Q: What sequence folds into this?
């Protein structure tokens, strides 16, 4: 259907690019039980990307296990049974932890109820998310309303016989398709990309059908208006954004990742901007935002100045935010070296209420917002199209790096760390200044190019743009190097510079030591809770904790996709957490062993911190070298 629509509106070279992902087929999941009054009730379940096939209704015992933590299984035998538990994935832990906890305790399958975090619009809401876990640990979802009926039927026994008829399966290494159409440009070797994903949960009106339609709507408008692009504009409906690889922490955005790293790696270095869209037909706050990579924020701030913001849609206007986040396909594009942006969608109540539920439907459509986003991004596409060079301002990246440094903190680590931090600060400032010079030159080149277009000198403009092929490649190479070198993730998939997560770990380690020295084990545990992924050591068995730690470090890059190598350091404090939880703080309590462990971990993190600073100096100098060697002559010879 998407391919046919692209052809109908007049796009060229419409094709389906095959990509290899893992596939999930969910046919049904219905749970039936007899209530206390003797009536028989059937409940519709949702599901996660796991395999469980009963081949017709099969009898099980359903057991209520609180929040599904290790402690909730004390005194419970769940072998071969279904487990019902309540979760909050935004404030506590992701679905994979209680699911795998149930699995290793012998449960047949896990049924999750959203106690908070998601699906809060209505008690009848079903919710679905990516599982981020193995397919042989089966998981389903149930509404709060249905769960209340079941819990009442269970009574004090917390257990009830049920019949489950389920058919859900995962199959690895299957073929799906990204749908691509083109609006051919006048110049060769450079492209723009508009993208949105077409897979969805339930109706998926906002996420992401409205976005896929917006890609087509902008394409149709450009064609109908007779616009003749300078650069070939690609329009992409991408598959497997919600989920696409089993047993991986980074199991979403698989279609986009495969597109730019496997199917069309030639897009790297030739696509100079990706405009990605998510949930674009509803306001997620009073102020709209374009979320961009650091390097495009300067150009974007200038480009949106003459775009009138509809006050009905966004009474507080529009702003540019950075950096991009991991929740959408623009992240996969960016780390491939394609500078990317997305309409910012992660703030506001919609994510907690309607997102990934059956209530994400056309009822929650705001026309003023949708119209404004067509205008805004249609305008931005044209402004990027009228540039000869990608308008990358590296000074913004290095200003952010400078801001991420804390010299006073480095003084408390070691003399070597202090020296490294000072050298990095100076290097970042030099790189920032170089970035400003480079962006000034880029702006002058682009202004000359735009002047030729305004004068109708299209052949001259084409020839002028062709003069800068090597420089354009160097700019995109430097951008890609910055993504490889400086984009790191914490255990909650948030974007940081390399040294930042270690610095936060050290601050929490020092707080934990301070608390133990004052006989405050509770305070120490609160600090340890913030270190890497050790919060999961508080609630789940060691086998669960280790499983979801090791699968980040012990899987090949192909399974980790866009998250590969983004987490570098890790401190496993599982046994320390258990030791402190099991000891009552008294005046005579001896915490010397725990303090010794914390000191050892602190020393290790200090070494990592110093190493990260030295690494960042080297990588910054390398990017400066790329820019100087490739652009210096052009910068100083351009009139």
A:
């Amino acid at each position: 259907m998407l391919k046919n629509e692209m052809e109908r509106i007049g796009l060229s070279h419409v094709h389906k690019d095959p990509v290899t992902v893992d596939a999930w087929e969910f046919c049904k999941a219905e749970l039936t039980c007899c209530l206390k009054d003797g009536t028989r009730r059937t409940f519709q379940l949702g599901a996660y990307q796991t395999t469980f096939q009963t081949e017709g209704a099969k009898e099980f015992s359903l057991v209520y296990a609180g929040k599904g933590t290790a402690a909730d299984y004390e005194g419970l035998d769940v072998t071969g049974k279904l487990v019902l538990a309540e979760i909050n994935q935004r404030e506590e832990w992701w679905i994979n932890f209680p699911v795998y906890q149930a699995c290793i305790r012998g449960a047949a399958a896990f049924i999750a109820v959203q106690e908070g975090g998601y699906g809060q619009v209505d008690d009848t809401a079903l919710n679905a998310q990516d599982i981020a876990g193995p397919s042989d640990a089966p998981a389903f979802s149930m509404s709060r309303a249905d769960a209340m009926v079941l819990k009442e039927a269970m009574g004090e026994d917390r257990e009830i016989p049920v019949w489950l008829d389920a058919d859900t399966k995962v199959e690895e290494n299957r073929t799906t398709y990204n749908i691509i159409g083109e609006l051919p440009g006048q110049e060769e070797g450079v492209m723009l990309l508009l993208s949105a994903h077409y897979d969805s949960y339930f109706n998926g009106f906002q996420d992401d059908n409205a976005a896929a339609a917006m890609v087509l709507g902008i394409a149709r408008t450009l064609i109908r208006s007779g616009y003749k692009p300078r650069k070939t504009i690609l329009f992409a409906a991408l598959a497997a954004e919600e989920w696409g690889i089993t047993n991986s922490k980074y199991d979403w955005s698989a279609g986009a990742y495969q597109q730019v790293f496997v199917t069309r790696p030639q897009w790297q270095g030739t696509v100079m901007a990706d405009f990605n869209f998510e949930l674009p037909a509803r306001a997620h706050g009073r102020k709209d935002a374009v979320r961009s990579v650091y390097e495009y924020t300067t150009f974007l701030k200038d480009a949106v100045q003459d775009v009138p913001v509809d006050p009905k849609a966004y009474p507080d206007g529009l702003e540019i935010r950075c950096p991009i986040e991991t929740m959408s396909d623009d992240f996969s594009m960016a780390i491939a070296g394609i500078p990317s942006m997305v309409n910012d969608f992660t703030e506001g109540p919609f994510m907690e209420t309607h997102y990934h539920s059956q209530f994400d439907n056309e009822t929650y459509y705001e026309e003023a917002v949708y119209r404004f986003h067509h205008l805004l991004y249609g305008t931005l596409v044209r402004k990027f199209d009228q540039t000869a060079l990608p308008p990358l301002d590296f000074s913004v990246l290095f200003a952010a790096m400078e801001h991420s440094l804390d010299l006073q903190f480095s003084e408390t680590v070691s003399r070597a760390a202090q020296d490294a931090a000072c050298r990095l600060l100076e290097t970042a400032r030099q790189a920032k200044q170089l970035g400003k010079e480079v962006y000034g030159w880029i702006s002058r080149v682009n202004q000359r190019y735009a002047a030729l277009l305004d004068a109708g000198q299209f052949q001259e403009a084409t020839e002028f743009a062709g003069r800068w092929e090597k420089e354009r490649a160097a700019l995109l190479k430097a951008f890609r190097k910055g993504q490889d070198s400086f984009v790191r993730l914490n255990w909650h998939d948030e974007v940081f510079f390399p040294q930042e997560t270690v610095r936060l770990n050290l601050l929490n380690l020092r707080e934990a030591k301070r608390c133990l020295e004052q006989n405050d084990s509770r305070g120490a545990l609160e600090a340890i809770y913030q270190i890497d992924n050790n919060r999961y050591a508080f609630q789940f068995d060691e086998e669960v904790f280790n499983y979801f730690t090791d699968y980040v470090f012990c899987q090949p890059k192909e399974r980790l996709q866009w998250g590969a190598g983004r987490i570098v350091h890790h401190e496993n404090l599982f046994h320390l957490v258990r030791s402190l939880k099991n000891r009552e703080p008294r005046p005579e309590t001896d915490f010397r062993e725990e303090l010794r462990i914390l000191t050892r971990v602190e020393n290790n993190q200090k070494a990592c911190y110093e190493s990260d600073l030295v690494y960042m100096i080297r990588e910054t100098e390398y990017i400066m070298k790329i820019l100087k060697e490739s652009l210096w002559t052009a910068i100083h010879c351009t009139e």
